[in-house]
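Pipeline run #58 for the internal structure catalog. This entry was flagged by the ingest filter as a single-chain record with no existing model, so it goes straight to prediction. Upstream metadata was stripped on purpose; only the residue string is passed forward. Reviewer on rotation: M.T. Logging verbosity set to normal.
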Amino acid sequence: MLARRLVAAAGRRAVASTAARRFADVVPSTRQRKSTPLMHSVVLLASGPDDKDILSIVSNEITKLHGNIEESRMTNLGGDFSLCSLVSLPMSTNPTAIVDTIRASLPDFTVEARVTSATPSSASAEPSKMLAVDIEGPDQPAIVSTFSSILLKHNVTIRDLITDTSSAPFLGYNIFAMKSVIGVPIRADMNALEADLQSFEERFGLTVGVSDPSQEQPAEDGEYDQQQQQ
C-alpha cells in the first residue's frame, strides 16, 4: 500500500513539475526588456550641387540620430542632386535636428524637414483602383497642369509621378515623358475620365497609355532570352 502511495505521490509530483514548467513557459518574464522608442515620420527634402557622395552623407547623418529611411525619391535636376525621403525618427528628435546635422555636412544644400500630415484611416478612405498612366509627346507648356486638372475634376489622386524631357534633334523638338500612378475612386465615371484623357491627348498631340500595374506580368525566362536575341 505504502509503495503504491509513494508511486502515486511521485506521479503527482511529476505532473506538478511538468505543469510548473509549462506555466513558466507562458508567464511573461519579470526581467526588464529594452523598450522600443516611439517613432514619428518626417518628410526630408534636400537639394544642392552634385559633387559629393550625398546619399552616403545623408544616410549616415540619419543613422546618427537613430533614424531610418523608409521611402525615397532621388534624381539629378540640372546640376543639382535632389532628394525627397520619408524618414522615421524617435519622437524625442525634432525635425530641425535632422536639418541642422545635414546642413553642417552639406553647407551648400537647401534642406527642409517636417512631420508628415496625418493619413486618413482605412475606414474613412475612399476605395480606389490603382492605374498607371504613361504619357509621351512633344514638350510644350501646360501639359502637367492640364493633366492634374483632369485628375482633380474626377477626384483622382496622384500616388507617384515622374516627368522627364529628352532631346530629339531629328524631330526638331524635345520629347516630354511622364509616368504616373493614380488612384481612381471606384465610384468615378470611367467613361467621362477616358473622354477627358482622350481630349487631352488630342489637344497636345500626345500618346497616353493607361494600364493596370497589378496585371503586368514579368516575361518568362525563355521569352526574355528570345527578346534579347532579336
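catalog note: Residues 2-26 form the longest helix (25 residues).
catalog note: The mean pLDDT is 81.
status: ready for reviewer M.T.
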